[in-house]
Each structure stands twice: as C-alpha cells, then as structure tokens.
Amino acid sequence: MIDHSCSCEDNPLIPKICVVSDVIEETPDTKTFRIQTVDGKKPFLPKPGQLAMISIFGVGEAMFSITAQGEDYIDSAIKKVGVLTEALHSISPGQKIGVRGPYGNGFPIEGLEGFDLLFVGGGIGLAPLRSLIRHSLENRKNYGHIDILYGARSPEDLVFKDDLFENWTKQPDTIVHVTVDKADAVWDGNVGFVPAYLEELAFQPRNRKVIVCGPPIMIKYCSESLVRMGFDKKDVITTLEMRMKCGIGKCGRCNIGSKYICLDGPVFTLSELDDLPDEK
Amino acid sequence: MKLLKKDLKEALRLISDDFELLLPGEGSGVSRFALWDGGDIDLSYGNTQLPPKDILFPHTEKMYSFKCATDVEVTEEAEAKSRIVFGIRPCDMRAIECMDKVFLEKGFTDSFYSRKREHTLFIAMGCTNPCRTCFCDSMGLTPGDAPAADILLVESDDSFEVKAQTQRGKEIAECFGRLLTDGKVQVSKVSCALKTKMSDDLPEKLSGMFEHPIWDEVGRACIGCATCTYVCPTCYCFDISLDNHGSEGVSFRCWDSCMFSDYTRMAGGHNPRPTKKERVRNRYMHKLSYFNERYGSALCVGCGRCVEKCPANLDITEFIDKVAEVRL
After folding, report:
1. Can the peptide bond before residue B52 be classed as cis, meaning omega within 30 degrees of 0?
2. At what angle do helices B167-176 and B8-16 cross, to 10 degrees?
3. What is the DSSP string of B216-242?
4. What is the pLDDT of residues B30-65, one digit of tens each?
5. How far apart are CA B245 and CA B66, in angstroms?
6. Helices (H), A180-237
C-alpha cells in the first residue's frame, strides 16, 4: 500500500473541496485564510511545518505553509505576490477552494523536546514558524525557555500582531523580541534588521535549538551569525522554498540535488543543507 | 519457443481482440508507437524518433474536471484499457523501469500512471542492429536483453525466440498456441558502436563537480529548446495547469521541461536556475548523478535520441567522456 499520510483517499493529485470560513487581514499584503471541509471539519491533520496545496478552481494551484490548526480548521497566512494569491486575496468567507495535503516533512518536533527554543522569523516567514510556536506553547512543559525574534519591513508589515504583542508575551518563560527595518511615528520598539538584532541579543548556544524562517537573504545572514555565535549547524533548522506543482515528489521542479523540497523538505538543518548543492 | 516471422501478423491478430496493440510505425514523418491497424509490420525501426513514454505518461492528460457555477464539483477521469506495446527496445524498456520508480515509489503512488501501468504489457525486441547514436551498453544495459519486459523476442533471419519473462507474458505466449514451435534462436553478442567512458564512480564524481567550469561550456552551447527532454524516454517532469471556459474547466497535466526558464521561476520572480548553465547542469546531474542517489540507477538509458536530435550538437556521451577526463 501507499506509505504516506495525506488526506487523499485514492488519488493524491485530486484536491478535496473545502471552504474558506474566515479571512483575517494581517497586513496590507497578507491575509490568513481559515479552511474547513464542506461539513465544517478539519481538512486533514498536519504536523507543524507541513504544507498544503491550495487551489481556486479556474485560477490555479500553489503550495503554502500551514500556519496554525485547531479542532476543526487549518489556517494558512498568504502574502499577495502572484496570480493565484491575488485571486485568493479577493475571496470572501464561504468560497469553495481545493486543498491537497498535508505535504512535506514538517519540523522535527520530538527532536526539539527538552531544549530551549529560539525562533527567528522575518516577514511572511513567521507563517510556517507559527505552527511550531503554537505547538510548543500548547505543549509548554516539553520545551525549555522560548525566545521569538521577529522582524518586518515596517510596523504595519508585522504579521500576527495579536500573538506578538498579546498572546505570546503572556506565556510563561517566553520572550518576544520584535524589530522593524524602518519605524513609523509611533513605533517605540527596536529598529534594525533581524540578523543584526540577533547578534545584539547574543543568545547562548548551550542546550538551544534555533528555527529560522524568512527571506533567503535573512536566512543566509542569520545562519552565518548563529554559526559565529557558536551554534552547531545541526541545531539550526530552516525551511526552503521552490516552485512546486505536484507536491508529491514526482513532477520534478522543486529538486535541490537529489532532494525534493515538497517531499524531503521543506525543513532542513543547516548541516543537511551543507550536503545539498548551492542552488536555492 | 519459436515464432516464424511470417506468422507474426497472425500471432498479433490472435491477441488483438483482447488488447489494444501499439507498434512502432511512422506517421506524418515521425516514427513512434501507434495503434496497430492490422497492416504489415515493419521491424526495421531501431529506436522510434519519439519514445514510448507517452503510452503511460501522455503528453497531455486530463486529471479532473470541475464545475463551479452554483457549487464546486470535481470529477476524476478514469481510464484503463488493456494494451500491449509490441517491439519496444531494451533501452525504452529500462526507461519504463525508471518511470516506475518515480511514479510508483517514494511514499506516493501516482494513480494516473499506475492505472495505465497495470493494464499495459510489454513485448520487447532485443536489438541486433543498434542505431549509430545508441550507447546503451555503456550505460549498463545489454542490447539484446530487456529483463523488465513481459515477453522478450530474440530475432534471427526467419524467426523469433519468444521468451516469456513474467506470468502475464506466459499467458500472452499461450495465446499464440500452435504458431509456436520448440526451439531457440542463436544470436551473436551485440555491441553498440558509440562508446562512452561511463563508470560506476562517475555519479559520485559529478556530485562533487557542481561548481566546475564544465557547466559554463555546456551551458553556452545549449539553446534551451528542450528537444532533448521531449525525445528522452526517461524525462518525466510535468506541469499541472487548467483550461476553463466560464464556470467549467479541466485540470490537466502535460510534459514540461527543466530546460525552460519558467520551470523553476517562483511567484515574485525569484528563479533558482536563472540561466542555461544552471538548467543544463540540473539536467545532466539529474540523468547521471541525482537519480542514482535517489533511486539507485542512472536516468540515462543510452537510447541516443538526444544525441541524434540536439540542434546545437550537445552530446551527453561527449559530456560523460569529458567528466571522466576531469581531474579533481
């Protein structure tokens, strides 16, 4: 039999019809879509860091990270960058969409247990991190101290503001560090790029795992900083993006070396990335 | 068992009621596998110009149709005709084995492919007279042998030896009944004219050559036309797209090519393989290194079609030889 855990009954390339039950505006170019089955259930059971192939019938299909999940829904926060995401941003609650998945390896949640966690996110990169942040806060006793370092271009570009300034700051033994590239008139927080703030905060590598998501350039500089700060490359986890069509490791285009990002990724440690060709 | 060549047409007629028969033939100036019309059988084809991969993996394939007028409705396309591919060459048969690995293994089964695969049998024809661009024996194949075929035919002047290699092959051979006589065919060992310095350690050597200047050279020569991927029997990359009119439409998949610039271009514009250099590198690496790493065999079967057809005269055998000469 087929050894996988996606929600398809028979054919993994046929989407399941689901409903967007709520749309939350995060920033001027990012919205969170709450997705349920037609009968109000959770479309499937994703692991933190897994992906969903989302389609609008008649427009197209693309892969997105799953930002959160609840009893009866999954959430995906999507930034407007192309044809499909433009169309997604124009839909209202109640619209039917296609969903396939969950795909990808997800974060190594068991491997993180017992460690202090440092989340480093930039821009829409907080979307995949949020699934793991929520998981670690829901299972708080399994993890040590939690730091969340997040940055965006400007205060209005910060996603999940309720989490950043309310929900997560109230959690025990959890610190949220927010920075923006450029402040506005009312911003009184840190100003500066994420890698610079990361160095300034000078986290100790001892018993700590780091999970980094964001634009490629941010990942690059943060990784270099973390290695300089003494972190082992095995303890730094990140996610990769490539163009995807099938999501199941067949159609060919998302490979880096012999690995398919949709199937073997998107989550890799820095030491695993060292074994892949530099083609990101 | 032996089948006289003069009885071949009769033998195929015996199975043509139960199966669609696909034979090598020529139409519109292109040789390819096509439905047998019951006419004369031309066995002079070495490799057909187009590979038989479209039998299991059509050029364009409808996946599902949708209606979203009042409510969204998705209808899956199902198709399962029993077919026999007659006269497939050992290289193309090996290519089917490669596609089987891709579409049937590693966690997910591709239902569109597996449905066709289950209902398709292969009667292979061992090669006695390789084409001028064939190099399958350099890639570890034996020109006269196709182990994955249901039946292997070994050709002599006036007859074929019929070797049933699977249970389904035996059942087909039984249908030939009285046309079969006892006996074997003696053939001398066949060797390809084109040789290349492929070796067991070349895949690993290549994986250490990602930044080597050799890619600038091949990248410059390539014109990005994708003919190589189109005629390649193992190239399996596909695109998923849709065609809709008003509120109804179909989702389909079609062959794609890693030689095209749009292939890896993401929304927002970033392209991890922005020039021909990265794209040619990915293709050669996939054929000769990545696939070995992932599935345990090369993704080149030595059929020679890309060597024959490349308008820029890029030649994978020359490339292999150059890599063999490189000192790291």
Report:
1. no
2. 110
3. HHHHHH-----HHHHH-SS---EEEEE
4. 999 999 999 999 888 789 999 999 999 999 999 988
5. 11
6. 194-201, 216-228
Interface check B77 vs A, CB under 8 A: no
Residue A52 C-alpha from the chain's centroid:
11
The CATH class for the domain spanning A109-239 reads: alpha beta
pTM, two decimal places:
0.93
Inter-chain residue contact A249 with B108, CB threshold 8 Å: yes
Instruction: Return the bridge partners of A54, or none.
Output: A62, A99
State whether residue B254 sits within 8 Å of chain A by CB: no
Per-residue pLDDT tens for A120-154? 999 999 999 999 999 999 999 999 999 999 999 99
Residue B39 backbone dihedrals phi, psi, to 5 degrees: -85, -165
- Judged by CB atoms closer than 8 Å, whether chains meet at A263 and B244 is answered as no
Kindly report, as residue ranges, where domains of CATH 2.40.30.10 are found in chain A.
7-103
Measured on CA atoms in the order B78, B81, B82, B83, is the torsion positive or negative? negative
DSSP 8-state code for residue B287:
I
B281 and B259 Cβ atoms separated by less than 8 Å: no
Domain A7-103: CATH architecture, name and number where available: Beta Barrel (2.40)
Interface of A with B (CB under 8 A): 2-4, 6, 10-15, 17, 57-58, 60-62, 81-85, 96, 98, 216, 241-243, 245-246, 248-253, 255-258, 263, 277-280
CA distance A165 to chain B (A): 29
Q: Which of B109, B254, B279 to mutate to test the interface with A (most CBs of A within 10 A)?
A: B109
Distance CA A256, CA A272 (A): 12
End-to-end CA distance of chain B: 52
Q: Quick check: B260 contacting A, CB < 8 Å?
A: no
Please answer yes or no on whether B249 and A243 come within 8 Å at the CB atom: no
Return d(Cα A118, Cα A111) in angstroms, integer.
Answer: 14
Q: Do B55 and B86 form a contact (C-beta atoms < 8 A)?
A: no
